[in-house]
Amino acid sequence: MSTETPLLLVLDLIGTFAFAVNGALVSLRATRLDIFGVVTVGMLTGLGGGVIRDILLDSLPPATFVDWRYLAVAAGGGVIAFALSPAFERFTMPLTIADAVGLSVFAVLAAYKALNLEFGVLQAVIVGTITAVGGGTIRDVAIGQVPTVFRSELYAIPAMTGAACAAILHGLGVESIAATLSAAGVCFVIRIVGVRFDLHAPRPPWQR
User: Fold this and answer.
1) Which of 27, 48, 88, 141 has the fewest CB atoms within 10 Å, i.e. the most exposed one?
2) Burial of residue 147, with CB atoms counted within 10 A of its CB: 0-12 exposed, 13-18 middle, 19 or more buried
3) pLDDT per residue over 9-54, tens digit each?
4) Which residues span the domain enclosing 123?
């Protein structure tokens, strides 16, 4: 992409922070963890997708292990979520928004990184989707829940759509921060609308 690297780094850190906050809040609601457990789950959620992405793209060692800012941002997200959890206790929207932001940013950035490494469009969409849902899947496994991506609610579909939009824009030669944010915005809107109106992916006929 022609976008400046610092801007992409900021977006990557925003996604890491958002997922870390989400992971910490989900763990607080689902379990009775202490601050160490909450921050750990937050960090696993925030960093997991990026590690998976870098492994898939053969970008080793993963950025998490060579740039202290990722660890600091993920840990900070977990601590902030723990400290402010009483304020969020009655509301689900902060948790949903944090999840949607992380999902959107990771899906799009991972797809762009794959395309810039000359991956095919389909492969880039797959990398973007796996990266986006990776953190949430690690989070759910860590707290003993069925991963959200395996349930019927819209989770992988928004990520796949956002990654596909990024691939289409890249193929059209539209390479800017506005294009990145637009593709991420598509994913974000689909995820929020799905949660707001309780939309689901198709289920087997006998479960309807």
Assistant:
1) 141
2) middle
3) 999 999 999 999 999 999 999 888 999 999 999 999 999 999 999 9
4) 5-207
List alpha helices for the chain, DSSP H: 5-30, 35-56, 68-88, 93-116, 121-142, 156-171, 177-196
| Distance of alpha carbon 187 from alpha carbon 181, whole angstroms | 10
In Å, what is the CA distance from 182 to each residue of 13, 105, 201? Answer: 18, 11, 23
**C-alpha dihedral, 98 to 102 to 105 to 106, nearest 10°:** 180
156-191 exposure pattern, b = at least 16 Cβ within 10 A, e = fewer: bbbbbbbbbbbbebbeeeebeeebbebbbebbbebb
Q: Is 140's pLDDT higher than 50? A: yes
